[in-house]
Amino acid sequence: MQCSTGNSQSCGNSNSEENIKDDEVRYPDGSVKLRNPNIELMDQDILYHLALGSGSHDLVEMFGDVKFVCMGGTPKRMENFAHFMMKEIGHKLPTGTQLMDICQYSYRYSMYKVGPILSVSHGMGGPSIGILLHEIIKLMYHAKCKDPIFFRIGTCGGIGLDGGTVVISEDAVDGMLNRYYQVPILGRIVKRPTRFDKKLIKELKALADPEDPYDTVTGTTMCADDFYEGQGRLDGAFCDYTETEKMQFLESLSANGVRNIEMEATVFSALTNQAGIKAADICVTLLDRLKGDQVMAPKEVLNEWQVRPQILVGRYIKRYLQMKGRISLDGHGSIAVKSPRRFKLVQQESQTFD
């Protein structure tokens, strides 16, 4: 089978120009509607990599109030973000309790719930965040969540930007500067457009404080499938190009409006767009790739930089809750089991996906 990989054609069904209608992705009350009729026919939908199931857990009770899903690469970062948001919105835990990793039996991802906020790790790269997004979107459906907003908070390499700069992605391209996420499905190449919510981007940019000791910018993000060669680094195990060729490539990215490079933006933007979910990708640069390949900033500086995207997302969430009159929230995301037998089955099934 031969498939075109050009910018305008694909083999089989290409969704690159698809316009998604509201009634395809949400019910009249705003709750998430899946674009997969098979799920409604299943006796139980097991979210293997989250160690949750629609038959084993009361997902409406556990997650029905979720408005914001915030995701980042590492479990520790997202645990820290959960604690940060607890302080920001005045969320209090019952005496003698602590935040619980809801996905502790999956051994894949970590998830914490702080009122209407889910803080979940997505691992590294497109395949990892893609698996998570499929299951998180299904979780929103089973929990009957209304108009959720997704944020990705992470780190990146800047293109002509100093380390510590916050970048809000306006657009996402792959390593060939294609504005779609390409995936082989049943032997056919399917292209899904990489779109972020423009209104959400403007609202986030407006929340950047002029007194912040760093810049907050918007621009195109390049998503690479690899940390080393895919990003033009010279320090991988292999390198079949010169430093001059590397610099020509990076400078061409800059000329095309690319402000940063990371490894999840195309998948994140394409799948949230496919689901009709508002989303934004906010990263902090750890270095300017025009000046080198290796991160040289001290650990304490890097730790401070990594909080900067969290601060911006925190401002948005806090402002939203204040406008809705919801700022002081109790509860700590406990497990609500519907069927002990199925609960045990879900744990066992999740642990087999090593």
What labels describe this entry?
two-stranded antiparallel sheet; 354 residues; Rossmann fold; disordered N terminus; alpha/beta; five-stranded mixed β-barrel; 20% strand
Written overview of the protein:
Residues 1-29 are annotated as: Disordered. The protein is of the alpha/beta class and 354 residues long. It has one domain: Nucleoside phosphorylase domain (Rossmann fold, 3-Layer(aba) Sandwich). The chain has nine helices and twelve strands. The longest helix is centred in the last third of the chain and has 25 residues, at 299-323. The protein is globular and about 60 Å long.
Helix content: 25-40%
E-strand count: 12
Q: Give the percentage of residues in beta strands.
A: 15-25%
Mean pLDDT: 90
GO cellular component, one term: cytosol
GO molecular function, one term: uridine phosphorylase activity
Family: Belongs to the PNP/UDP phosphorylase family.
InterPro entries: Nucleoside_phosphorylase_d, Nucleoside_phosphorylase_sf, Uridine_phosphorylase_euk
Summarize the structure.
This protein is α/β, with parallel strands linked by helices. The protein is built from 9 helices and 12 strands.
Strand and helix map with partners:
Layout: H1 22-25, E1 46-47, E2 52-53, H2 59-63, E3 68-72, H3 75-89, E4 111-114, E5 117-121, H4 126-142, E6 149-158, E7 166-173, E8 180-185, E9 188-193, H5 198-206, E10 216-223, H6 243-255, E11 258-262, H7 265-274, E12 278-288, H8 299-323, H9 340-351
